[in-house]
Amino acid sequence: MKAAHSLARLNGRILNAYSRHTTTALRAALPLRLALPHLEPALALNVDKEVKKDRLVILRAWEVMKAGPSDSNEVVPQLLQATKEIDRQFLARVGAFPVDIVIRYEEIAPVRTRRIQLLYDAALKILAARDRGLHLRGAMQASFSRDEFAQLLDRLFRLYADETRYISRSVRLPALLVPLRELIAQELLNVMIRVAHPLSGEIADLIYEPMTPARNE
Q1: Which residues contact 85 (CB under 8 A, 6 or more apart)?
Q2: Is residue 93 a contact partner of residue 45, using CB atoms and an 8 Å limit?
Q3: Closest to 56 measured CA to CA, from 130, 5, 106
Q4: Using one digit for the tens of pLDDT, what is the confidence trace for 188-211?
Q5: Residues contacting residue 51 through CB under 8 Å, at least 6 positions apart
Q6: How many domains is the chain built from?
Q7: Which of 3, 95, 173, 199 could form a disulfide with 130 if both were Cys (CB 3.0 to 4.6 A apart)?
Q8: What pLDDT band is residue 26 in, cutting at 50, 70 and 90?
Q9: 176: helix, coil or strand?
Q10: pTM attached to this predicted model
């Protein structure tokens, strides 16, 4: 289980880096700069929600790997259902801010399912490599080439962005900005996608740079 916790912690650092880069880029986008004081509290809590969801997926992948083969067609719907409790915790925390959010599962569920499946499959590969005695970075390098890993991150980030766009549509805005709600949601998605690709490459470069004994896990 230690291997799964290590992977979950790394994933959390990656998501927080994506959130920080996104917030920086949002401050330079005019429609979003106006809405950012109303969006930022929800975005900050949202990344914490996503870290918890991904941790759930990674730990479940470890359990399945140790228990033996299992059909992801059964596991992924179970994980999707389990994420709803994390959503409830998120909504309870958001309630302390001047933000109203309704999670519309008819919109979010298909996007979230794809992200769960992608992360679950990747975690299975990496954790299987770790189970053969490799440290975390070595397990990642054994499971994916540098370009494959960058593409994986980019896809995960884009799915994260899609779900965040749906949530942003529910944020309470001043009356002046309400007519711009869809524009703001779309611009948020555009910014998150622009951030995703270069950041994916930067993280992949860090993971796949030559290792020294001091950097090994």
Answers
A1: none
A2: yes
A3: 5
A4: 888 899 999 999 999 999 999 876
A5: 11, 12, 15, 16
A6: 1
A7: 3
A8: confident
A9: coil
A10: 0.85
